[in-house]
Design a protein that fits this description.
- This protein is of the alpha/beta class.
- 31% of the residues lie in helices and 13% in strands.
- Strand 1, helix 1 (25-35) and strand 2 form a beta-alpha-beta unit.
- Helix 2 packs across helix 4 and helix 6 (163-186) packs across helix 7 (198-205).
- The two termini are 32 Å apart.
């Protein structure tokens, strides 16, 4: 079913993944597997997923190939099952029961391929009172207590984009589960279903804080603790030019260097007494307002004070350290985060740009030996981009 990994293509080279198209955490999880070298075939639906951005700019579809299958058509489920029969992993992000109704649920797939790892990405999970309810990242992290941790005490909880729920609590847990199940299957076991629920992952991310809460080292309220902005030497401060600096001087020796460079050596012991935190925060804030972000960045350069400038998305790729490491990369005109993590023997790379829906139907049919994947003659809608060059996206969506 799979070939041996090839150096230069990532540690998952030879692993075959079927991704049933969706938006958010499922595509990101599949992108991560593709970055690691897996041959990911995204099964797009006619008309696209409705994300609302040009498919040529959707970097979560990089390093993948795409076919278009209408699962509601008479032959749609059979075409997906043909792919599942030759795959190691399948990922879907439908509401519970939808894949079964479409004829591509776990039982259908395992009947064709008992060793398949079937990854399910949802917000609420496969069971529970809310399993059938619609939802988004913000609601999932709200009920787990995670959202309530974030922000100032005197303001509503701060929304952390959709990074904590969709991607940290969702995608990354799905990938961990898929890889663990894949190891089990290859060690002589059978395939299985991985139920990755964002509520489970988002709760799990706060494990350390739950431990601190149980030990009495964390107050169950926002903006009152060491790591939630309540501590004056772990937070963000405005500079004279309206920008911000981030401070994380937690350990005593880092704090000493911080107050020395900031010019408030008289506050060297203030961090030890929470009753002095309010006054300390005011003095730190006043000092930061005396210089620009770039001036403070230069002053703290080379120190162990654990202070860094708060950069924007467009600024970040130009940070000297990130530029030196190649944390961001440019491919086909798109600046994007490079694959992570890094491997010494099987390096990863952005091999192709975002896969346009249906662009690779003929190639996948050949490579995976699934001739029935090809649409009937005279039906170009099923492969609208056939014949285009993979990895060379157009700027205007045509599907």
């Amino acid at each position: 079913m799979t070939a041996a990994p090839t150096a230069g293509q990532g540690p998952l080279s030879g692993v075959r993944v079927v991704e049933l198209a969706g938006i958010g955490p499922g595509p990101f999880a599949a992108m991560l597997l593709a970055d690691l070298g897996a041959d990911v075939v995204r099964v797009d639906r006619p008309g696209g997923p409705g994300l609302g951005i040009d498919p040529a700019c959707d970097v979560t579809n990089r390093n993948k190939r795409s076919v278009v299958v209408d699962l509601k058509a008479a032959d749609g489920p059979a075409r997906v099952l043909d792919l599942a029969a030759r795959a190691d992993v399948l990922i879907e992000g439908y509401r519970p029961g939808v894949a079964e109704r479409l004829g591509v649920g776990p039982a259908d797939c395992h009947a064709r391929n008992p060793r398949l790892v079937y990854g399910r990405m949802t917000g609420w999970g496969q069971q529970g009172p809310l399993a059938q309810r619609a939802g988004h990242d913000i609601g999932y992290i709200a009920v787990t207590g995670t959202l309530g941790l974030i922000g100032r005490a005197d303001q509503p909880p701060a929304v952390p984009a959709n990074l904590v729920g969709d991607y940290a609590g969702g995608s990354l847990y799905l990938v961990v589960g898929v890889l663990a199940a894949l190891h089990h299957a290859r060690a002589g076991g059978t395939g299985q279903v991985v139920d990755a629920a964002i509520v489970d992952g988002a709760a799990h991310l706060a494990s350390m804080i739950h431990g601190m809460l149980a030990a009495g080292a964390w107050q169950d309220r926002r903006g009152a603790n060491l790591l939630d902005g309540g501590c004056p030497y772990y937070g963000t401060y405005a500079t004279s030019d309206g920008q911000y600096m981030a401070v994380g001087a937690l350990e005593p020796r880092f704090y000493e260097e911080f107050v020395r460079i900031l010019g408030i050596e008289d506050q060297a012991r203030a961090h030890e007494d929470p009753s002095r935190w309010g006054a300390l925060r005011e003095e730190v804030a006043a000092r930061f307002r005396t210089r620009t972000r770039d001036e403070w960045t230069a002053l703290f350069e080379g120190s162990d004070a654990c202070v860094a400038p708060v950069l924007s998305l467009r600024e970040a790729p130009h940070h000297p350290h990130l530029a030196a490491r190649g944390t961001f990369t440019d491919h086909a005109g798109l600046t994007q985060p490079a694959p992570a993590p890094r491997f010494s023997a099987t390096p990863t790379a952005v091999r192709t740009g975002p896969a346009r829906p249906g662009a690779h139907t003929a190639d996948v049919a050949r490579d995976w030996d699934v001739p029935h994947l090809l649409p009937p003659p005279g039906n170009p809608a099923a492969h609208p981009h056939a014949g285009t060059t993979p990895g060379h996206p157009q700027r205007k969506a045509t599907s």
